[in-house]
Amino acid sequence: MNKVEICGVNTAKLPVLPNAKMRELLARIKEGDQKAREEMVQGNLRLVLSVIQRFNNRGEYVDDLFQVGCIGLMKAIDNFDLSQNVKFSTYAVPMIIGEIRRYLRDNNPIRVSRSLRDIAYKALQTRDVLANRYSQEPSIAQIAEELQIPREEIVFALDAIQEPISLFEPIYNDGGDPIYVLDQISDEKNTERRLIEGVSIKEGMENLGERERLILTMRFYEGRTQMEVAEEIGISQAQVSRLEKAALRHLRKYMATS
Prior knowledge:
This protein is mainly alpha-helical. It contains 13 helices and four strands. The strands form two sheets. It has a two-stranded antiparallel sheet. The protein has a two-stranded antiparallel ribbon with strand order 3-4. A hairpin with a 2-residue loop joins strand 1 and strand 2.
């Protein structure tokens, strides 16, 4: 993302248009002024750059994301309604994000059938239509009724196009140890669980504090998630994570010397 030139565009020299200027250009675009359209696109390329930074950890080429983002920008320009009291960027950002997400879904190495993708895209489009119509997020049942498609098919199709994430992706960090997706999942075959199932671990557990023993028992013997443990004993999940890691380090050290 530190490139100065993307797709032959010198990003250091991109213009920034004030809102009043953009509304003037959009009015001219509605009248068919192509020069105004080109100026509007050039004046919002920085917006595309800011959006694609959200996707810079997906392993995709920045140039590809930039081009796809520009498609979303042009769709936003062509469909923007000047009668609405909303800034262009507020309207354009979701359009650019949506275009990039569609690109990432279509290029996902996990193949989803065309029929499922079609149902999912129709459901997403219908969701937007219903949200605009009723000014609130529609339910799956409402989307299914609008499309005359069974609710189960809608759910299955939407699940199929979701992007997979790593179990080691951090979901929270309070300045200490991060909490990963893996920490939210009960795992019957977790290697840490096998560690505390050893016979000699009993003595090591007795050397822990009462709270640490309780946390390890709930996590590895009862198979509870860190969130469930935190709710049970009345502390934050971040605290559970830190206490758990410290207790496991103590047990490893005890087993190594015993």
